[in-house]
Amino acid sequence: MKNLVIDILRKLAKTESAAKELTAQVEAQSLIIAALVLTVGKGSSSVMSTNIEKAILSASSASEAFLQSDVDLLLAHFVRLISISQFVEVNGDD
Prior knowledge:
The chain has about 90 residues and is mostly helical. The protein is about 85% helix and about 0% strand. It is built from 4 helices and no strands. α1 (about 1-15) packs antiparallel against α2 and α2 packs across α4 (about 70-90). The longest helix has 24 residues, at about 15-40. It is flat. The chain starts with a helix and ends with a helix.
C-alpha cells in the first residue's frame, strides 16, 4: 500500500497544477476502493468485480441513449480501480 501511495504522489508531482485536484480525487478513490476490498476480505474482489461489470453492461443495454464509447470508458476505469485492489490484496503491505 505504501508503494501505491508513493506512485500516486509521483504522479501528482508530474501533473500540472490545474489538473492536480481532479487527479488527487481520482487517486484517492482508488485508495478507498483498495482499502474497502482489503477490509471485506480476500477473494471478494473478483465477486465484486463481476457484479459491477454485469450491472454496467446491463444498464448500458437498457437504453440506446448511452454511447458505447462511454460504456467502454466507464468499464476501463473500473477495471483499473479493481486491478489496484487486487494488486494490493496479492502483494500485501509491500
